[in-house]
Amino acid sequence: MPELATEQLAPDFFDVRRQSAVSADTVRREVAEPDSPVLVDFDHTLVATNSTELFIAHCRPSLVVAVIDLLVRGRLPWGLFPGRSGYRFRDYLCVVLIVVLTPWNLLRWRRDAPALFAQHRASEISGLLTDVDRSRLTIISFGMSFVIRALLRGSEYESAALLATPLLPAPSRFAGGKTRTAVGAVGEHEVARAVFLTDSLDDADLLGASRTGLLIPRQGEPLSARERLYVPLRYTVRVKSSPWYTFDRLILVDALVVAIAVAYDLESLLHFVLIVPLLLLSVMSVYEIGYVENDMHAARSEARPVLSPLVSRFRDYPIRLGPWIWATAFAAAGLAVAVLLDELSNEELLATGVAWALLLLAVRGVFYVYNRMRTETRIFAYPVLQGLRFGGVFLVFVPSVLGVVLVLSQLTAMWATYVVYRLGGRKEALNRDLFGTVAFLIGAGLLGMTEVLHGGVLAEPPGRESATELCLVSALLWSLARLGKAPVVRRVKGALASRPGRDRTAAAVAS
Fold it and tell me: 10 Å Cβ neighbour count for 320?
């Protein structure tokens, strides 16, 4: 079986049986032969997008669809299934659940699909198929039949045969390749005489089984419904950082630091470990609007913006209303847990809710102004923005004096890292955890000295007598854990790097 590197496919068409590039005119002559059936892939071949992703992104309400998509396609280990079968069933299951839970989307899709096909129609490939009688043309896809049929309604392909996934498919539909589907529909003899066009090496089986298997350049850019469905922190995780880094900084740093700062005994610390992450997620939902705005503004106005290549894929990301809905939900959940755990009274709930809403507005307002400041002056606005993000919990719960020092030490470390970055230095060279630990020890040492010399500085009200000791011990243990993380991570990375690499060359089909 000869091998074909994926980079060899573009920009030419590729005849896999002859193992050579061919011109568009050659493809046109192949498909024009009157005795040859013509099989055509759909996604990124006949249409310059992915029909399943387009359907999911089109469905409403986007909040419900985003949750379904996140739970089905984002949280289950589909990669454990052999080959592509898990991912095919994943997409099928996601679409079916959307249809069952939001059936009105069937009507919306039937109404809007023809216009979407006209918008995403792969004109170059359609031009090659102009002289093909529709009785010889069969569209074959792992996509959903009702999705594709609606797209084709009213087009020149409406009368073409369609082999796609029905709403009630046989299990074998997900496991086999397209050859099994094609043979079952038109017969082995017809497949052996056919010309097959596809953009994907995933169709290697049918490329090999056809008389002429033609790999074509992928039509259109990749489309992911996730980039058009809002989920809290999705942009942060995909564009700004990574899932592990986001979890590490938000939960293991920000949330734990604030929980330690407001805890007054061991039981309350356990309570705040549950409450604080919900409140910080509320703030981060609104904070993320500023992330998107910052990147889009930089892409438009800066001569040489430093942006992730993924930014352009989030041009249509619905970041305006969704974050406020999620921020409200996270805040309500956090305050409800606080009431259930007796960390907040029912009488305080209304006033606290209003204060939290004002905090969210303040975060949004400060980030809006920040994004419109000159980059050199942002250095002085940055700590204000981070102070709102960190210190918002202090609107609800009283921190210990030492807890304020702990939070300030983390803010100082973040600010120092940002200043290094803005002044053109390597922010990775600054150990933020070590910087924060040193800042905390200096602040705690000054407070301790003042307490010894003058007294009363670290005094806490009745019921909170152990807050200072708890904060000191917890902060020191947490700091030791953070400082010990780096060597462990380096060892793990070194072990992974020493493993032999894998061949990334794509397999082609047998001649």
Answer: 10
Report d(CA 117, CA 282) in Å as an integer: 38
Judge whether 55 and 126 are in contact, CB under 8 Å. no
φ/ψ of 20, rounded to 5, equals: -150, 155
Question: In 3D, which of 178, 232, 238, 184 has the Cα closest to residue 210?
Answer: 178
Q: Determine the pLDDT at residue 336.
A: 97
Dihedral of alpha carbons 321, 324, 327, 329, sign: negative
The Cα–Cα gap between 109 and 113 comes to 5
Residues, the chain: 511
C-alpha closest to that of 140 among 4, 28, 37: 37
Q: What is the DSSP string of 42-65?
A: TBTTTBSS-HHHHHHHH-S-HHHH
Cα pseudo-dihedral 301, 307, 308, 309, rounded to 10: 50
pLDDT, tens digit (0-9, with 9 covering 90-100), for 198-214: 999 999 999 999 999 99
Tens-place pLDDT, residues 283-328: 999 999 999 998 887 767 666 677 778 888 888 888 989 999 999 9
Which two structure tokens, joined as six digits, stand for 251?
A: 């939960």
- Amino acid type, 389: R
Query: pLDDT of 435-475, one tens digit each?
Result: 999 999 999 999 999 988 888 888 888 888 899 999 999 99
Structure tokens at 100: 């069952």
Helix (H, G, I), strand (E, B), or coil: what is residue 214? strand
How many whole angstroms from its chain centre is CA 279?
A: 21
At 75 the pLDDT is 87
pLDDT tens across 40-96, in order?
A: 999 999 999 999 999 999 999 999 999 999 999 988 898 888 878 899 999 999 999
Residue of 235, 164, 193, 199 whose CA lies nearest to 10: 199
Q: Return d(Cα 246, Cα 236) in angstroms, integer.
A: 8
Distance of CA 482 to the CA centre of its chain: 27
- Helix or strand (DSSP H, E) at 373: none
Cα 460 to Cα 222, 400, 456: the distances in Å are 58, 7, 9
Residues 403 and 261 sit within 8 Å (Cβ to Cβ): yes
195: burial class by Cβ within 10 Å (0-12, 13-18, 19+)? buried
Asked if 201 contacts 193 with a C-beta cutoff of 8 angstroms, the reply is: no
Task: Tell the burial category of 315 from Cβ atoms under 10 Å away from its Cβ (0-12, 13-18, 19+).
Answer: exposed
Paired residues of 196 in beta bridges: 39, 213
- For residue 149, pLDDT beyond 70: yes
> Can you give the pLDDT at residue 491?
67
- Pick the closest to residue 143 from 41, 62, 38, 37 (CA basis): 41
Rounded (10°) CA dihedral 95, 100, 105, 110 = 80
pTM for the model stands at 0.81
**Rg, C-alpha atoms of the chain:** 29
The arithmetic mean of pLDDT across residues 183-199, rounded, is 93
